[in-house]
Design brief:
With 212 residues, this protein is an alpha/beta fold. It is built from seven helices and eight strands, in the order βαβαβαβββααββαα. The two termini are 16 Å apart.
């Protein structure tokens, strides 16, 4: 079985390989059709779906799209809430790092989400003002993958030093954070890497197609 992923990023390729263990995974440079820094679940999901569609072809069984973004989890004030559960969900204040995967088989597209982590307020303010998260972290931390202290008022690196790296394949000192542990690796201090998180999203998206 052959699978195509709509990105040339090696971390995304490895994440797909972890889900489709026996497949040959091909990377394809495609456009997401969304902004460099997707804001909100709608735009992030749209980017993942576009990548999945554009990467799929008659030569593969599945096309996979992966897109990271940021979003708030609070519901709009006009939305009907469903008792205590929704009211507590509305208490998830702040801006969260999110990631969505889409898997296309030529007939339909399924989506799945990866884990989320709340961004420190100083980082969130810069992202909302228009700064892309990945380059912002590269600037703040350098490419050595330091850890940002979520309790800091400045969003500067933690005095605890660099976070652990979960995956070092294809990684050199000049690599960006997006090609290493990712933002989620920074904010979880290496406990969950970008590859881990993306693989979870791909597995959730692929599950309904593989269970048919």
């Amino acid at each position: 079985m052959d699978v195509a992923v709509g990105s040339e990023n090696p971390v995304k390729r490895r994440a797909v390989e972890r889900v489709f263990e026996s497949a040959t995974v091909d990377t394809r440079a495609v456009e997401s059709g969304v902004s460099e820094q997707p804001i909100g679940h709608v735009e992030t999901i749209a980017g993942a779906k576009t990548r999945a569609r554009e990467s799929f072809g008659t030569d593969v069984a599945f096309g996979v799209g992966l897109e990271g973004g940021v979003a708030e989890f609070s519901s709009s004030t006009g939305r009907h809430t469903n008792g205590v559960e929704d009211r507590e969900f509305n208490g998830a204040d702040g801006l969260f790092l999110i990631m969505w995967a889409a898997v296309a088989d030529g007939r339909r597209i399924e989506i799945g989400a990866g884990p989320s982590v709340r961004l420190p307020d100083p980082i969130a303010r810069e992202v909302i003002s228009g700064t892309e998260l990945g380059p912002l972290l590269d600037e703040r931390l350098g490419t050595d993958g330091g850890a940002i202290d979520p309790t800091s008022d400045t969003g500067r690196p933690s005095p605890d030093g660099p976070a652990e790296r979960g995956s070092t394949d294809d990684q050199t000192p000049s690599d960006s954070i997006s090609r290493g542990q990712g933002a989620i690796g920074v904010f979880t201090r290496g406990r969950i890497t970008r590859e881990d998180a993306l693989a979870s999203a791909v597995a959730c998206a692929a599950g309904p197609l593989m269970n048919d």
